[in-house]
Specification:
The complex is a heterodimer of chains A (386) and B (189). Chain A is of the alpha+beta class. Chain A has two domains: 305 residues, no CATH class; 59 residues, no CATH class. In chain A, 27% of the residues lie in helices and 25% in strands. Chain A is built from nine helices and 21 strands. In chain A, helix 2 packs across helix 9 and helix 6 packs across helix 7. Chain B is α+β, with helices and mostly antiparallel strands. Chain B has one domain. In chain B, 25% of the residues lie in helices and 21% in strands. Chain B has a four-stranded antiparallel β-sheet with strand order 5-4-1-8. A two-stranded antiparallel ribbon of chain B has the order 2-3. Chain B has a two-stranded antiparallel sheet with strand order 6-7. In chain B, a hairpin with a 6-residue loop joins strand 4 and strand 5. The radius of gyration of chain B is 21 Å and the shape is flat. The chains are: A alpha+beta (386), B alpha+beta (189). Strand 9 of chain A pairs antiparallel with strand 9 of chain B, so a sheet runs across the interface.
């Protein structure tokens, strides 16, 4: 694994806009950054990233069983008790999940180690699946990269196949996201695109446009019943909002399903460590009332149970404490061993490894100028060297 | 090869938008009837298809008929004695005089082949009152969303969107989405 500098294609912005990549720039700073790329060997990809992604997925499924059977844990996970039955039913019915992203510490030398699992509302999908792919094809065509250069990225093929195999309870798969977020809207539009290619009829509406009819079914703006809904909106928010009372009787099938609420929660990390202590792809993690927490020593990371994009993460090291600002933390924190992002010439990459319908199928690399990944990270493309 | 063999976008990007917009103009053939007999005499549908469609429409009717907060509002739109209490009313609402939700009586049904293959769909139809009392002629049949489907019984062609089945009147919105503003708008992880 190495990082090399490249000259950006002069027309990449126009290309991005043509391809529907509307959030390529964030707050005036480029989010898509092709002034460099990360290079991996095929062995690094298959042995160190792809296989552990499959392995961790299986461990997570075991953890769901364990957590849902334990009321004390459900309380710790801050799942409102009123929704325990609903969450458990979604798991007992084996409601299918669509996708997720594991964030890894990886430096090309040791095994990839899990920072966290974005199981419910992961983004960064389109740029990994589409724009990174277009970039590689372009650079091979231009002769900048040799023929035979590859990429760990069959995300779109897996998404289209996955939607194609989906059995809907009605004529339409609905998609929803918040207003005013180009990134969320873009991610949802991309998934909708893949669903159409998979042969499904789709419709988008904003999250606050969802209605409910007299029998408690969710409806769209044309009063059509929403039988199947992809929501880029976290379960921990849905559970606490007004329409949550309609969830059990709505008969709507959600993607991601409600049981993903226990995997997208940072409390998963100490549970995984408890169940599979010493696993090479896990970092030691503890609840804050666990005396074993002391084994982490003086350097550790505090993560809020429910937090997004690096907000409220505290880095405690011998150099002092760094705190990322944010609105989260009310539900408590967990502690994880300090595994600083590896530095590549002052850049700090984190590997996002995608799982679609249970199969690892690609990565996206986001890098920062400091060791906590936030939503200001830049997306840097990668290649597998021939 | 560890990457996709091809990438295609049908919705996103500048070229794809025109593709998505054409679909709504498609028309499909449907039958609009008040009775099973009207359906069978057309010769277009079998006895069992006609019966199946009316049975489906009756079940759908309970779910999708437009709801009104009281009998007066319902009758103003659909006519005297053309409204009944909705099935979801509690017995307490029903026993209090005129309380609970009201909905129009089913006056006919629409049937046709489901889009994307599959069986026959059946949808309930209603007959709104003419806007002015004594206006000549009926307003014809409308679906549960209030879209006019046909003037009179028979086989006709309607916009595909009109024939989308199983719609339900929405009683409330904005029950989801409040956390987004509280936490700064993004859900991304």
């Amino acid at each position: 694994m190495r990082r090399t500098a490249l000259t950006p294609r002069p027309d990449w912005r126009a290309q991005a806009e043509e391809a529907g990549f509307e959030f390529h720039t964030f707050d005036g700073e480029p989010y898509w950054d092709e002034s460099a790329c990360y290079r991996f060997s095929l062995e690094q990809i298959e042995r160190d990233i792809e296989a552990p992604t499959q392995e961790l997925t299986n461990l997570c499924y075991e953890a769901v069983d364990f957590i849902l059977g334990n009321e004390e844990l459900l309380t710790r996970f801050a799942i409102p008790e009123a929704h325990w039955a609903y969450v458990r039913q979604s798991w007992q019915r084996r409601d299918k999940d669509l996708y997720g992203r594991f964030d890894f510490h990886y430096d090309g030398k040791g095994p990839a180690r899990l920072y966290e699992f974005n199981a419910d509302t992961p983004t960064g999908l389109y740029e990994a699946s589409v724009f990174q792919w277009l970039w590689l094809e372009d650079l091979i065509r231009l002769g900048t990269l040799p023929k035979g250069t590859d990429q760990f990225n069959s995300i779109q093929e897996h998404l289209v196949d996955g939607f194609g195999a989906m059995e809907l309870g009605g004529p339409t798969l609905h998609f929803t996201a918040v207003r005013d977020s180009a990134e969320d809207r873009g991610t949802t539009a991309y998934l909708e695109d893949c669903a159409r290619q998979g042969g499904l009829a789709t419709k988008f509406l904003f999250i606050d446009e969802i209605g409910v009819d007299a029998t408690g079914r969710f409806t769209d703006l044309g009063d059509q019943a929403i039988t199947n809904l992809f929501k880029l909106y976290p379960w921990e928010w849905l559970f606490r909002e007004d329409f949550a009372k309609h969830l059990p009787n709505s008969s709507t099938t959600f993607y991601e399903p409600a049981w993903k609420a226990v995997l997208s929660n940072k409390a998963l990390l100490p549970v995984l460590w408890h169940l599979f202590k010493g696993h090479p792809n896990l970092l030691p993690s503890f609840f804050e009332d666990d005396p074993e927490m002391e084994s982490l020593g003086k350097e550790y990371v505090r993560k809020p149970l429910l937090g997004r994009e690096g907000a409220n993460i505290q880095l405690v090291t011998s150099d002092g404490t760094r705190v990322a600002p944010g609105p989260y933390g009310d539900e408590g924190f967990i502690r994880q061993a300090y595994a600083p992002l590896p530095g590549f010439d002052g850049h700090y990459p984190v590997i996002g490894s995608w799982i679609v319908m249970g199969q690892p199928c690609g990565i996206g690399v986001r890098e920062e100028n400091n060791p906590i990944t936030t939503n200001a990270a830049r997306f840097v493309p990668h290649v597998i060297e021939p | 090869m560890k990457r996709s063999h091809a990438i295609r976008l049908v919705l996103m990007g500048t070229a794809a938008l025109s593709l998505a917009a054409c679909d709504d103009n498609d028309k499909i053939e449907v039958g609009v009837f008040e009775t099973v007999e009207q359906c069978t005499v057309t010769g277009q549908y079998s006895q069992s298809q006609c019966e199946q469609a009316v049975t489906t429409a009756r079940v759908e009717h309970q779910k999708v008929a437009p709801r009104f907060a009281n009998r007066q509002e319902c009758e103003a739109e659909f006519g005297d004695a053309k409204c009944t209490p909705a099935p979801e009313n509690t017995s307490a609402q029903a026993s209090s005089n005129g309380g609970g939700w009201f909905m129009p009586v089913m006056m006919g049904y629409m049937m046709g082949r489901m889009m994307g293959g599959g069986g026959m769909m059946g949808q309930p139809l209603y007959r709104p009152q003419p806007a002015t009392a004594g206006a000549a002629g009926a307003t014809g049949f409308s679906n549960a969303r209030g879209e006019t489907v046909a003037r009179a019984p028979g086989v006709t062609r309607v916009a595909a969107a009109t024939a989308v089945p199983a719609t339900s009147p929405t009683m409330a919105r904005s029950g989801f989405g409040s956390s987004a503003s509280r936490f700064g708008g993004t859900t991304a992880t």
